[in-house]
């Protein structure tokens, strides 16, 4: 039963930019524990949807509900405190600091856990242990003392994932986690995401359909701001409208 609980939903989600409907009346139901992909041709409205869900943009119309609470009017920081966490871009990684220090800093960001590390009784030991655990979880043990700025690209994405996991996300939103990655790194990051997704929900924008097929339980296909199809990968990939939308690219 838990698998079909809806953790995050959007109804009539609409975003207008000066009369242009980037997202038009979109309904999304994100199942608890699922890895849910948003796909679609360029300009389909995926990034806008993503920004609406994390409140980086205010919707023109519509409602977003997280675990029964209307979060439509909340600010990004309030969303993060509830456990809806967006992956940080590589630009948010401090290049002159070590991998470990980057994760330690992430653990102290205002979020669900941060306050516990400021309590003197638990402070440093807990923080350090948790940071090392996260470094290990994303396969960066060998790089733990390396400067983040010197990591190869794929390893930086892994570090980005660790800093996201540091916030203990309930729902984790990943914006093109494979973007710019070499083919051989993609499988590795996919494996990390699969592991990181255990016990949480993941929403991801992804261009690479092999990754979507391999990783995602649910797929929403957007086109021109509207939902073209949704379901599991097999059903949407067979949908003639989806095939047409992708062939047009
Ligand atoms: P996708 O991520 O699927 O490629 P986007 O959500 O980035 O699509 O964009 C959807 C549409 O909205 C595009 O036509 C884009 O040009 C337009 N758009 C996105 N952001 C803005 C903005 N801030 N102002 C005006 N138009 C925008």
From TrEMBL:
Give GO MF terms, alphabetically: ATP binding; ATP hydrolysis activity
The record's GO CC annotations read: plasma membrane
Q: Gene3D superfamilies under this entry?
A: P-loop containing nucleotide triphosphate hydrolases
Task: Enumerate the spans annotated as ABC transporter domain.
Answer: 8-249
Sorted alphabetically, the keyword list is: ATP-binding, Nucleotide-binding, Transport
Per its UniProt record, what SMART domains does this chain match? AAA
The entry's protein name is ABC transporter ATP-binding protein
This protein's species is Chelatococcus reniformis
